[in-house]
Specification:
seven-stranded parallel sheet; 24 helices; 25 strands; 20% strand
Length: 718
């Protein structure tokens, strides 16, 4: 470790695991830091070499003890560990490395239940809109939580922060004494503009047992309500307050049932007596808030079935709260109302192409996105006062023949919603919104933009009549030719659109719009990664089996995404101890997850017309993160890495080729680094978000704030 680390442990009472806790910390920190034990009233304070004991004048609780400990240290990074938690080797280093990302303010470790064979205690805690919080992932296997990600709240059992972040946040609230101080700190961290992250490589074994004693419930309820009333920004408090008020009688009934009603009433009394103090704190925290809407999409609307004995009707209550929260979410965007500059139409909002486009457009113009929410839980990762998202919640499937019928049924909604919005331009993404988008633009007499991510004919199910494919191709070429602007993911893909004559053309490549600094490669072994569509013709079975056979060599695979092969690939991955399956990864967590890979794989079938020409996100993501990528020969991806010089080509579906390539990258770290540097250089010079955004916005002439949008043929690349 290159930074000075201070570790703070707060002890009170008997503390049977304290010696083991401290010895593990001293060994892990080494000469790069110090370990401080705050003695809040330990019955038998231990003497452990390398540990400095700091007596407290009285029992300050966890919050006050942590603050006292931090004040006595000088480390740039501060790690907090519960006195009944024992870290595994490397935990401190992992937390420090996670904080190298300046966008991360707090990082929480993987806390396991001691003595229960890698069963999770917490991998980051969810927070309900009412402020209720619980141990995330409790009882689940650690194997389900091997990827770094963004979380709502840390677990106080094992977390870390930079000293300057701690000071900027004002530390923990001493009046909380015990419980909920970690959640409160996390919410304030988000609002101050930092992310809260989960680090799977920082592991601690925690002597955990959920206890509902009256004293604990009093502190939990008091602190929860105090946090909601002082931390939630005004717009969020207005939305959440009806839920909080509705929950209070229900929680009182639960308290009566479980024997802590007096403590619940006492919590209300404390809030009433300290109302003036809470108002002062609310003003103080408002001054520190820079990301007002940071919590909007982090709070959940359903309560867990574990840890809390749910009352009858809890499922119905969850549905009511969810419905209310969505409706209020739509209304909460009042600054986004009014006539948009552009309406964007998209049937697959989970794909990263929509957040990419919205990030570009909302930097300069006002956008309304009409999206098909097939599962009823879509949350747009792009947050901007220039954006309004209007979902159509209609059940549907991905990558299935029935999807086409569902898309046809949605056409009247897309048309009517676009006409009602009266935009100054219409932007349709792919042919399933292309025809209706063109019709709406002509009826409104506004410019029409058509963006093709993949030609629709190539996406039709295998075995469908070729005549249908030819018809779809003719229709798409017509839409391209009539569009005022054609947006393509890669100019090298124009041969796919033979017969189309676009009036204007601009390239919006599949680049990541948020790019962290590249992280060091793994010190030992090789982490291979793929996160994308789990569909045929991508050699995914071969990738799993090939990497699975290299476990003894130190090669591992992280596989994620969604699609028709999801269940089959998950089952296949479970055969191998060195293959992890993540499922779908939220766009907000994607780059943090990808940053843990040493090499990317994207091996597509060059003989399949839909895959020969795909311009994969993975090519540009690997460039941005300074990582090599393995692709199939004869594909557009191979053409791109030939230009950038940051990848390796293999024969599609040939396991021996892939095995040879991976072993070469494993045993030649210098070449691996050289390929990564070449990719990063190409990305910085040609494909950075600023360059791509400028290219696309060059196609729009914007006069005034939101007065008129015209398409600018002179400003495009073609």
């Amino acid at each position: 470790m290159t930074v000075r680390v201070s570790v703070v442990v707060v002890g009170y009472g008997e503390e049977p695991a304290l010696v083991e806790c401290l010895e593990a910390l001293v060994q892990d920190v080494g000469d790069d830091g110090d370990v401080v034990l705050v003695d809040n009233g330990i019955l038998n304070p231990p003497v452990v070499p390398g540990v400095r004991v700091l007596p407290a004048r009285s029992n300050l609780g966890f919050a006050g003890g942590c603050s006292l400990g931090v004040a006595s240290t000088v480390g740039e990074v501060i790690v907090f560990v519960n006195s009944d938690a024992v870290i595994r080797p490397g935990a401190v280093r992992a937390l420090v490395e996670a904080l190298c990302d300046p966008s991360v303010g707090l990082v929480s470790g993987c806390v396991l239940v001691r003595g229960e064979d890698d069963a999770v205690n917490s991998t980051g805690n969810p927070v309900h809109v009412s402020g209720l919080s619980w141990a995330g992932g409790l009882g689940e296997p650690r194997s389900d939580h091997l990827a770094a990600r963004t979380i709502t709240s840390i677990s106080g059992a094992l977390f870390a922060t930079r000293r300057d972040t701690w000071e900027a946040l004002g530390g923990m609230r001493a009046e909380f004494f015990l419980y909920y101080e970690d959640t409160d700190l996390s919410l304030r961290c988000w609002l101050a503009g930092w992310r809260v992250a989960y680090c799977p490589d920082a592991v601690a074994l925690h002597s955990y047992e959920f206890d509902r004693n009256p004293r604990k419930m009093y502190l939990l309820e008091r602190n929860r309500l105090a946090s909601v009333l002082t931390v939630y920004p005004p717009h969020l408090l207005r939305r959440a307050l009806p839920v909080v008020i509705a929950f209070e009688p229900l929680l009182l009934l639960i308290a009566v049932r479980d024997g802590w009603a007096a403590e619940k009433l006492r919590a209300w009394g404390w809030l009433a007596l300290h109302a003036r103090k809470l108002r002062r704190e609310r003003r103080a925290y408002a001054e520190r808030t820079v990301a007002t809407h940071a919590l909007d999409d982090l709070l959940v609307t359903s309560l867990p079935s574990q840890q809390v004995r749910r009352p009858p009707g809890a499922r119905l209550l969850d549905r009511v709260v969810t419905g209310y929260w969505r409706r209020r979410s739509d209304r909460a965007g009042s600054p986004k109302r009014g006539r948009p500059d552009v309406v964007v139409l998209r049937t697959n909002p989970r794909d990263s192409s929509l957040p990419r486009l919205l990030t570009v457009l909302t930097s300069a113009i006002k956008v309304q996105a009409l999206v098909w929410d097939r599962t009823g839980d879509y949350e747009c990762p792009v947050k901007s006062d220039s954006l309004q998202v209007q979902p159509n919640v209609t059940p549907g499937r991905y990558h299935h023949a029935s999807t086409l019928l569902s898309v046809l049924r949605l056409q009247p909604w897309f048309l009517s919603a676009t006409l009602r919005a009266r935009p100054r331009a219409v932007h349709a993404m792919d042919l399933d919104t292309g025809v209706v988008g063109l019709l709406a633009a002509r009826l409104l007499r506004v410019p029409f933009v058509y963006q093709c991510l993949d030609p629709y004919a190539g996406a039709l199910p295998v075995g469908w009549p070729r005549t249908l494919g030819r018809f779809v191709n003719v229709v798409e070429n017509m839409v391209i030719s009539k569009a005022d602007l054609f947006v393509i993911t890669d100019l090298l893909r124009m041969p796919q659109h033979a017969g189309a004559t676009p009036r204007s053309l601009v390239e919006l490549a599949n680049v990541p719009m948020s790019v962290p600094e590249p992280q060091p490669f793994s010190e030992s072994g090789l982490v291979v990664g793929y996160i994308g569509s789990l569909v045929p013709h991508r050699s995914l079975e071969t990738i799993i089996d090939t990497v699975g056979s290299l476990a003894a060599e130190g090669v591992s695979l992280v596989l994620g995404g969604f699609g028709p092969l999801e269940e089959a690939l998950q089952a296949r991955a479970e055969r191998y101890p060195n293959v992890s399956f993540l499922g779908w990864v939220d766009d907000r967590d994607l780059m943090a997850t990808l940053g843990g890979f040493d090499v990317f794989v994207q091996i597509e079938d060059p003989d399949h017309p839909a895959y020969r020409w795909v311009s994969p996100n993975k090519v540009f993501e690997s460039m941005a993160l300074g990582r090599p990528i393995v692709v199939a020969m004869g594909t557009l991806a191979a053409d791109r890495i030939a230009e950038s010089g940051h990848g390796v080509t293999v024969s599609y579906g040939v396991a021996d080729d892939l095995r040879t390539a991976l072993l070469h990258l494993l045993h030649e770290p210098a070449q691996r680094a050289s390929l990564g540097e070449a990719g990063r250089r190409a990305f910085t010079e040609q494909w950075s978000p600023d360059i791509v955004s400028e290219r696309v916005l060059g196609a729009y002439v914007i006069e005034g704030s939101t007065t008129r949008v015209e398409l600018n043929p002179a400003g495009v690349k073609g």
